[in-house]
Structures are given as C-alpha cells and as structure tokens.
Design goal:
Length: 83
C-alpha cells in the first residue's frame, strides 16, 4: 500500500523559530509522520483528499526543543486525519 500525504502549508503561529529551528521542525515532522504511518497503517475506503485538515490540539512544554515540536506536530496531524 502506498500512502501519499501532501502538506502544502503548515502554519505555526506565535513560535519564535529561527530558520535553523524551522528546518529541524520540518525534518522531525516528516520523520515522525513516516514512522507513524508505517507503524499504524490505515486503509481508507476512498480518497482522504481534503482542502484543509486541522490537527488535534497541541500542547508544548516550556523550553521545548524544535525536534520535539516536529514530533508532536506529526502526532497531531495523524490524530486529526479523518480515518
């Protein structure tokens, strides 16, 4: 089975991220999404194409690391998928 997940824009408001932090968040989000979707395959009956999809609520502890932010974003996205 092939899963294709395309995220055109990921909006993170109010987070003081440097360009380097954004790259760490990006890579960590991609890696965690790949891991979660491979570990817990889902088989939808039809296409899940949606113009927008809100993730589950995301809580961040003070002083979070960019990589942890990326992992939590991925978990939020997967939890918000309409499956």
């Amino acid at each position: 089975m092939t899963v294709r997940l395309h995220i055109d824009t990921l909006v993170l408001e109010g987070l003081p991220l440097t360009p380097a932090d954004r790259m760490v968040v990006h890579r960590a989000t991609e890696a965690e999404l790949a891991r979660l979707l491979a570990e817990h395959p889902r088989t939808p009956a039809t296409s899940l194409a949606r113009p927008t999809c809100s993730g589950a609520p995301l809580l961040l502890p003070p002083g979070h690391a960019p990589a942890e932010l990326g992992r939590r974003i991925a978990r939020s996205i997967v939890a918000g998928l309409p499956l």
